[in-house]
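The following block was generated as part of the benchmark described in Methods. Ligand: S-adenosylmethionine.
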Amino acid sequence: MQPVIIERLGHLGDGIAPGPVYAPGTLPGEVLDGDIDNGYMPNPRIVTPSPDRVAPPCVHGKSCGGCQLQHASEAFTANWKTEIVRTALAAQGLETEFRPIVTSPPQTRRRASFSARRTKKGALAGFHKKRSDVIVPVPNCLLVHPDLAGALPLVEALAVLGGSRKGELSVLVTTTETGLDVSVTGGKPLDSELRASLADIARDYDLSRIAWGDEETLQRRPPVLHFGPAAVTPPPGAFLQATPEGEAALRDAVLEITKGAKRSADLFAGCGTFALPMAQHSEVLAIEGARAMTDALDHGWRMSRGLKAVTTQTRDLFRDPLIAEDMAKLDAVAIDPPRAGAEAQIAELAQAKPAKIAHVSCNPVTFARDAARLVRAGYDLDWLQVVDQFRWSTHIELVASFTLR
Ligand SMILES: C[S@@+](CC[C@H](N)C(=O)[O-])C[C@H]1O[C@@H](n2cnc3c(N)ncnc32)[C@H](O)[C@@H]1O
């Protein structure tokens, strides 16, 4: 039998050998042995390990599906993520200076999405096993903030109370400055007994807030996060940057790129992660598609002191992008679209031509497409920084600076 030698990693983190043969938990250059089923080697034996191989630091590394790259050294992963971005740019004929990658430390993820199920004896809570709907308890998870790793008893208690035997409960837990903010989906319909029990749980675990599907939100005190000087209460489940360290790196880069602007915009603004810090120096037009998030941003601005004017708009920027005419007076724009990128909005930016654009992205391919459009319109891609908030996973996040030539 021919030896199986891994050539590269796929976008889900599996090693890929000619064939193709996919093998989880392997690295380029490794020689493998094992049964292959339909192009997949589920349990590879590593005959020749890569020098980049390390022992998974987490005790749950082998079973839990939360992380894909615990077996790779930090240097390997940093280089792998950087090269994915470089290759996506090259495919569009672009190159630029790469600032050193910033990787968030272990135990800093501010949010965990737990799965839980009622069992005969009580409940099982944790993350899904790799490629399976089996739930693995993860009491020592090294990825998430210790308050989240310690939240498993809370998640189990919620499953005992409001989970069904058949269905799975999804419990999103977020650390905030005023305690854990919990959002549950997939639970039983709320009745008065369940409502009373949830209030007990919220008190026993000192939660700031608990949302039960769309049915009810019980708030003991507002969950708060600071964006610059503004205290914001995000709506349940709202998008937040994954780690405070990653958020700081992205925000500092956005502030550096947009500094000196008198009037700026933050497009796909969320709850104001960038717009509110930008408002320390500039008037900001903040546009976001979800009204509850725009409202949270606006409320945070109104309650803060010393910020310049922030105007908010709830708007679908895919179907109804901000047109060039409406951006005529802007000196700088920050843009942070979802994975699909911002094709329609970028076309308008390419016409409006603000002096500076700070582009944050979680998808190198759509970013490179949109970057090429800006470069064709007369922008320099000054530099780019990969910000790895998703340690041990295959996700990639980046921020890039564009200046009008
Ligand atoms: C990657 S997040 C960035 C949010 C914010 N910049 C932050 O850092 O917290 C993308 C945001 O775009 C919003 N969004 C998604 N599709 C949208 C659309 N078609 N129009 C406007 N906003 C949209 C999402 O609600 C989300 O808040």
